[in-house]
Amino acid sequence: MTDVDGRDVAAWVGRTYEGLAGVLDAEPATWDAPTLCAGWQVRHLVAHVTMPARLSPEQFGAEMAAARGDFGVLSDTVAARDAALPAADLLGALRSPVLHAWQPPGGGATGALSHAVVHSLDVTVALGRPPVAPADAVAAVLDAVTAAEGAWFGVDLAGVRLESSDTGWAWGSGDAVRADGGSLVALLAGRTLPDGRALPRR
Predict the structure, then answer these.
(1) Which of 33, 2, 59 is nearest to 128 (CA)?
(2) Could you report the per-residue pLDDT of 108-141, keeping only the tens digit for each?
(3) Can you say whether residue 190 is alpha, beta or left, with left for phi > 0 and alpha for psi between -120 and 50 degrees?
(4) What are the φ and ψ backbone dihedral angles of 166, each rounded to 5 degrees?
């Protein structure tokens, strides 16, 4: 799986999910901690991201039909239900090669990388931990989301300059928003940081 200037995105995705599994395996108490996804604890988020490794295409189709085609409803339903699965099962799914090779429909390798990086940061930023995603993967997602000028997640980047405090990465012009690269990705994904910072919505 290559994209993002021909680089090995699959390796980045795999390392991101493996890193997240390592954090949760080492710190069991974090399963009940809140994430940057409003209303979701870590266990809900992991249940969400591991759907491709746990649900067959037929099962996913049945879930989508039950949700009347609304992916947001499907996500909330599956997250609420499958958050109760044993931690060992969810960790196994995070480490699954099936998940590491999965690409969202229409999203390709870049979409798979963004999904992995953003959701891993939903956990690590909320917990105050360093990113588990490789630094190059975080930078690639920053480049991809800003190239789309925030349209992926509905944030308004007009008059905003983003500056990474840990890598020197920067984009845009206007009022400076300075944070570490992982926190910038979370802001670009429409999240509110633990300190209350958020980017305006369109």
Answers:
(1) 33
(2) 999 999 999 999 999 999 999 999 999 999 999 9
(3) left
(4) -115, -10
DSSP annotation string for the chain = -EETTTEEHHHHHHHHHHHHHHHHHH-GGGGGSB-SSTT-BHHHHHHHHTHHHHS-HHHHHHHHHHTTT-HHHHHHHHHHHHTTS-HHHHHHHHT-HHHHH---TTTHHHHHHHHHHHHHHHHHHHHTPPPSS-HHHHHHHHHHHHHTTTTTTTB--TTEEEEETTT--EEESSEEEEE-HHHHHHHHTTPPPTTS--PPB-
Radius of gyration of the chain (CA): 16
Nearest Cα to 200, choosing from 159, 147, 140? Answer: 159
pTM above 0.90, yes or no: yes
What is the Cα–Cα distance from 43 to 58, expressed in whole angstroms? 24
Question: For 144-195, how does the pLDDT look when each residue is reduced to its tens digit (9 = 90+)?
Answer: 999 998 889 999 999 999 999 999 899 999 999 999 999 999 999 999 999 9
If we measure between CA atoms, which residue out of 19, 9, 4 comes closest to residue 131?
19
Are 150 and 188 in contact, with CB atoms under 8 Å apart?
Answer: yes
